Prior knowledge:
This protein is mainly beta and 351 residues long.
Amino acid sequence: MFRKIIFLITFILLFCLSFSRELIFEQNKTENKLFFDFYSFTFFDNIESESTLTDGYTLTGAQLLPHLIFNEQKYKITLGWNLLSYSGLDEFSTNKLFFSTKISPYPKMNFTLGSFYNKNSFITPIYSSKNDITQLQKDGVNIEFTPAETKYNLWLDWREYIFEGSNYQEEFTLGFSNYKVAERAIFFPIQLITTHKGGEIDITDSPKQTLLNFSSGVDLQITKQIVFKNNFVGFSDLSNVNTLPFTEGYGYFSTINYLKNNFLFKISYFYADDFYSPLGNPYFWSSSENNIFEKDYVMNFEFDILYKLRIDKNIIFNLKIESNYDLQEKRINYSYGFFTEFNKIFNIKED
């Protein structure tokens, strides 16, 4: 079943690619250059939870990603290092090599093999924004294709590698999404995430696990400032041995976005039955991660305020205030956070 999912996503990308008229390398107009790219992300994210599904916590620290970029006409090579430090800890939580090769085999298509990072556009029930803090770097394959006003993104993130006789399982995540890159009155988003734990050469007794989350819906641009989004979400446990109290479920996620100057106001409604998403926000789960508590249904209202200020071309400041009201438990959960992003590219060599 899992191989069929990979085949289906690959087929979708190839189908989109067939609309491209020119099957040649996209020529980069810039000359050969060597750059130094410095990216930093500092964060303070405080979650106050009264939910029976998850506890509150605070994420505070910084992430650094300095890297060199060699840019040729037909490819780009990146070499750097990724550091993640939480405040109060002397050691880095992430301290690893960042290396990738990126090519453009067809017009408007990029293929990256190795390390990459992308701020995902998934809806919160299946992919929480927390992952952009704790799992910024991905390692595997990233494919981006933009035939017109829509970008298609397929990626594979290999989280855990195993050897013969390893006492732990391999882990990887497969993701697919499309999102608009220009204003459109109507748009049909498709999102899919599959997480897998398993392997055939490890010595663990843990059962293999493959969990699938998907979403499809419609975005309506009511006015220039107002967008109505309605998504159907689904969950399916494709494992041979099921460890969750249910094997499949569904839900509905509706959001009204109002953009005014630098502010984004969001009102959301979510209903689900037998829904679980390992990378999603726990407020939308029907069962806690350890199966101690299970809900008959999930029904939430959310109200969020996001503020984004570009201080200059290299620095962005973000503020968020999020609230979640659980209609079943009649409890309010809320969070607030401050984030800064700095990204500057220095030209080292130009031919």
